[in-house]
Design a protein that fits this description.
The chain is of the alpha/beta class. The chain contains 18 helices and 25 strands. Strands 21-20-19-18-17-16-22-23-24 form a nine-stranded mixed sheet. It has a seven-stranded mixed sheet with strand order 1-2-6-7-8-10-9, covered by helices on one side. β20, α16 and β21 form a beta-alpha-beta unit. α1 packs parallel to α2, α3 crosses α5 and α10 packs parallel to α11. The protein is elongated and about 90 Å long. The protein starts with a strand and ends in a 13-residue tail after the last helix.
Length: 612
Amino acid sequence: MHRETSRTTALSAALIMDGPVLVFGGCYSNLEATQALLDAANELDIPPERMICTGDVVAYCADPQATVDLIRASGVAVVMGNCEESLGFGAEDCGCGFTEGSTCDRLSAAWFAHADRELDDDARAWMRSLPRWIDLIVGGRRLAVVHGSVERINAFLFASEPDDGIARQVALAGVDGVIGGHCGLPFTRIVEGALWHNAGAIGMPANDGTPRGWFSLIEPTAGGLEMHHRPLDYDHRLAARKIRAAGLPEPYAQALGNGLWPSCDVLPPAEIARRGQPLHPPAILWSDGVEEGPATTVPVPPRAKFSDPVLTATGERRAVVPLGGLKTLWFNTGTLCNIACRNCYIESSPRNDWLSYIHRDEVAAFLDEARSNCPELAEIGLTGGEPFMNPDILAIIEDGLSGGWRVLVLTNAMAPMRRLRAPLLDLHHRFPGQLSIRVSLDHHTAERHEEIRGPRSWEPALEGLLWLDDQLIPYAVAGRNPSDEDVAVLRAGYRSLFARLGLAIDADDPASLMIFPEMDGRADVPEITEGCWDILGKSPDALMCASSRMVVKHKGDERPTVVSCTLLPYQEAFDMGATLAEAARPVPLNHRYCAEFCVLGGASCSARGDRA
């Protein structure tokens, strides 16, 4: 690469590159995303000399100084953004171009004040020195790299810009194409052979309902330039925790997780209509043969199964389940458990604290929201881990019962429950018929149960069942369905066991004895498309996510979040926000458990039965 700089350094610079160029922008003080971008460049074998940042290194997130330091140390080329202009020259606000008094304008005041306090003089001097325009020559094409538009540093130019607007900007620049930033959304437009390309932003998601950031690769080929938009995954949870710790606006922290902007003030109608729809920008070949209209598409590698929330691997529309009404609200009380079961759906164990103990006041906040906004809610479910290990469990149960809801607790009925027998019996007597317990008994034989749950787990579980039966506390049993046994044979085995023990359980009632499918991570599980409902004779209304959500607290997070399913507490794609209202949106069936457990396995964690 050769670099030449004009005498007016702060106005322009030129770069000549002889290989693939990585373009990114909008670091937004997000140190985790910036480091992830540099790591991705290293994996792609792109050196800093072939990287360009379209500006706004500093903005919404918590680490302005550290992000500037990292970018400067990396050696990548940076064009000045409006945030660098404002902070470098001591302006009173960020100069983002937000309408005065709008939500974006109000929220930006907080991050701007934070960055203004944090940045040192050296960082501001660097910002002032940045060029406002970089000429990039690659693959025989001359491109102008700017932040907003050719005319204005804070102009928003989106993919829906009319053709004449694109053509005018490129003509004004006097180049073959323009690379812009600022708007935060990735897109590529080719109008009458002229290019406008925006790599998107890495420090905030693209308002598409996913936490990903975006960057791009521009690769010279024999046919022209190939433009590849690339998603960027990073530790968005840590970045969100830092936002909260710095006292910055909560909507920014929430946006990092749910992938939705706090406001659509700046967006044109076309971009607003696409809010929450995961992006899949195609690779574009910009060649001499393209006269006008859209560019030809470069073939994209086949999708893997369960990799796209909108389309299956075969390109069909993925099935989506709307929330018909919140009837069951689950709380994961923490993943710590007194035993470590083989094939535990969420890997609970005596050491796994990936989900922290949830506290009474945190549960109470969601119960208050449900009381106000979810009149259809009938049941509170408590799962783990082992719920009876949570220090607040009795208070949580009592709050649910006193709120008038049924409370269901999932347990292995071993020592943690045994030590709380007296207070449980008291709750049962004070709230008759509202409290129920579901005991995991993975097989009707001691041998196969202990294959899963470990040695000396059979007798304590039976002892717990017998105690529940003696005290007339409503209870049910949950078993597993090994691949080598028929469900009818399993139920017959349980029927014999219950008869020997004198337990009042109807083994043929799917709500009293729930048989859950065993999951095989190696199996080739089919994806569920919109057409599968009719083919399978099933309705999306019958799935668990049509009527339930689960609250979890990830280790290290300051507050709980809502996920779509009890089986998927660690999957970021199923993290639905910080409130029940945010989590009311539809759920795409984009995980093998959706197909294997719920649709094809016919299982549900609610008290309605397994329908097997």
